[in-house]
Structures are given as structure tokens and as C-alpha cells.
Amino acid sequence: MTTTAQRAPAHTAARPNGTPAHATLILAIICVSYFMVILDNSIVFTGLPQIRSDMGFSETGLSWITNAYVLVFGGLLLLGARAGDLFGHRRVFLFSLVVFSLTSLLVGAAQTQWWLIGARALQGIGAAVLAPSALSLLTRSFAEGRARNRAMAAYSAVAGLGAAFGLVVGGLVADLISWRAGFFLNVPVGVVMVVLALRFLPETERRQGRFDITGAVLATLGSTALVLGIVDAADFGWTAVLTLVPLVAGALMLGLFVRVERRAAQPIVPLRLFASRERSGAYLTRMLYMGAMMGFFFFTAQFVQSVYHWTPLQAGLAFLPMTLVNFVLAVQIPRLLERAARPLVLLTGVVLTTLGMAWLSRLNLHTPYLTGVALPMVLIGAGQGLTLGPLTSSGVDGVAPADAGAGSGLVNTVHQIGSALSLSILTAVAASVSTGHATADIAARSGTALTGSAVLLALAVVTVLALIVPARASHNERSL
Q1: Contact (Cβ atoms closer than 8 angstroms) between residue 149 and residue 394
Q2: What pLDDT band is residue 474 in, cutting at 50, 70 and 90?
Q3: First to last CA, the chain
Q4: Are 18 and 138 in contact (CB under 8 A)?
Q5: Rounded (10°) CA dihedral 70, 75, 79, 82
Q6: Measuring CA to CA, which of 25, 68, 231, 376 is 20 to 30 A from 428?
Q7: pLDDT value at position 2?
Q8: Nearest-CA neighbor of 73 among 245, 295, 290, 380?
Q9: pLDDT at residue 12, rounded to an integer
Q10: Angle 233-236-241 (CA atoms, 0-180°, nearest 5)?
Q11: What is the distance between the alpha carbons of residues 414 and 321, in angstroms, rounded to a whole number?
Q12: Sign of torsion over alpha carbons 53, 36, 229, 442
């Protein structure tokens, strides 16, 4: 019987150097589609003051606009990755593009708080299927080595640039039209990507198996309960019943999730993925790193609008020092990795980000933009440009073909869950700061939250040194 992969058009065959025919188009389709997912993580940030004014959100309630998206995104990523393994990554990729585009319409049309939060959660479902399918198609289309390193560098550059560029796009459309317009843009882009994907993306073989629904539900509900408890702590205190119940429930569900995965015949997270010390280090580093960066975008965007009284567009443009440096270094990653060891590049990136975040955390009412915000952003942008490519490679290298979907999904899962958990912690910590004046409160809370981000990044440095560096050194020794 002929498999789906065997029926794929001849133009999808790989060349001797490990790149497929139409490699540029395939990479562009994957990266632009993933760009939409990352963009919608950050496009709301410059519109948050406008959304708060229009719909009456509280400070902690405002964080749910982001958390509803990233929690569902992160919690269902593993199920989305499994769907690609069972039904074919190209087929699932196309389905997710349609879902993501339609739910973007719902977000843009939202009229109430719950409508907006609910639509963002639904949008997270589409993202949860799209992201792992995109990464799996990339790893299967480009052979390990030089070809994959170059493709992975482009993919990782999109991850960094999407977050930063989302602020500019969000600010531009919020200024000229409305915060809603950024979500409406996803519809025509999604249609174009569907047409191109039908023509050029290769299909992968379908595998026999079933969904680990129990695992997916426990992972999503457990993470959501933890975030709910942390957010409630800002309003009711850490010892309140409304805080302790979801925290305990979340911890129990995540503990049960590990037990279910250990016994499942076809687990949504094969625990063998953690057998590699380097991969485990990459997962933990990514959680810490992306959590710190989510806090950076969330609080800095509000700081420049509330303290400097800048428009949403000006707030988005304020991130250009980071965006430009990030882009320049991210595209140089393949060349850097040919000259320097991957752990060294990764460590340099995380250290630079930590230094920039520590500098930025000194924000106050009188902080000048150039020396207090722009220059720290240069360090943060350089660090992110050096970090994400090597970190992604460390998270997927050595994964068996049968686990490709789960491996890709886990990379994206820790990215999103880390973002949601850290943002809820940083929001709760920041909410405890009060000066009695609205603008001074935002300045003080931003500085406190960014100090927390710097601490998370310092922990990421320790993780790289303790796990990734020695693991890669051992791997290189065995290869000699």
C-alpha cells in the first residue's frame, strides 16, 4: 500500500546537501505561519491600555488576555503534536491555519471581557496545533547538520522577531485604527499560507496510534490552576482559600500527569525525551528564559505608554533597538555555530540578556529612554538573537523520528507554559507594590517585575552551565 509520504510530489525530495527542492518556499511558509502565532503573543501588549479603557479590565485581569492564549496554547501543544504524528503534519498544519484565522476574527470582534478572553483561548487551540506541526515539518524537511542549522536559525529568528515586531504592528494599528485590526490581519495572511502550503509543503507519513486525552487534559488544567492561584494571590493574598485551592489542585493534577505519562502505552509526553541531559536543560532554560521575556514585553510596553505618555505606535517603535539587533545576530547564527561551540553561543546569549534585564530593571519615574530603556534593550536583543536558535536545536537534536511530533511539541509547550507561569508570578509580585499614585505605581511595578525577570534569567544561566554545557561536551567526546 502506498503511503502518504510516498505520494508526495517529486519536488519535495531532499537534495544531497540536506535541503529539499523549493527549500526557500517551504521555509517561508513554515516561518510566516509560525510568525502569526508568535505575533499574536505580543500584538496585544501595546494595545493593553486601550483595551483596559474600553472594557474596564483590572491590572491582574488584564494578564488573562495573554494567559488565556498561552495556557491553552501550551497545554494543548502536546496533543497538537500528537495529531501531526497520527494524521500527517501537513494535513494538520493546514487545519490549524484555518482554525487560527477564524478565531482571530472572533478576537477582533470581541465586545466584552469574557468574549475577548474566551476567543483568545480558542485562538490558542489553533496555535497549539500549528506550532508543533510547523517545527516538525521543518525538522523533517531539512536534514540534521548545516541545512537544519540554517533553517532553525530562520525559525528561531522568527520567534524573536515575531514577539518584538508584534509590538510595532500592534502599536501601529492601535494608533491608526484600533487594537482589533492586528487580529483581522491574520485572515488574509492565513488564506495565502493555506494556498501555498497545499502546493509546496510535503506530507509526512501517518502513524498508527491514539490520543492521550487524559494527559492533555491534566497538563492544561494543572497549568491553568497554578496560574489562577498565582493571579488570585495578588488580589486575596497567598494564604487565602481562593489562592491555596487552585495551587494545590494544580500541583496534584501535574503530579498525576507525570504518573499517567509513565504508565500510558502512547504517552503525549514520552518521558524518554528527558533522558538526554542536554534536552532537559534546554527545556528548563527555555521556560525560565521565555518567562522573563514575557514579563519584559508585558511591563515595558505599559511603562513607556503610562510614564512617558507615548502613543501605542511610539511604544511599539520603542522596542526597535532590541528588534534590529536581534535580527542582525539571529541571521548570523549559522555562521557563528560553524566557528564556535553551540553551548558557548547559547551561554553568551543568556548572559547578555541577563545583564540587559538587570539594567532595565532600574526603571523609575525619572528614567530617560535612551540610557535607561534603549541601551538595555540593545543587550537584550543581542542576547535573544544568540539564544533562541541554539536553544531550539538543543531541544530537538537526537529525538527519534517516532517522537518528532512530541519532541517539537514539548519545545513549544515549555515555551508557552513558562511564559504563562512566569507572567502570573511577576504580575502578582508587581501588584503588591503601591505608591498611592497611578503613574508612580506603574513605574514601581515595572521595575519590580523586571527585577524578577532578571532573577529568572540568572537561573537560566545556571541551568545552561550545569546541564547543557557538560552534556554537549560529553556528546562531543563520544563523537571523536
Answers
A1: no
A2: low
A3: 42
A4: no
A5: 80
A6: 376
A7: 38
A8: 290
A9: 45
A10: 85
A11: 27
A12: negative
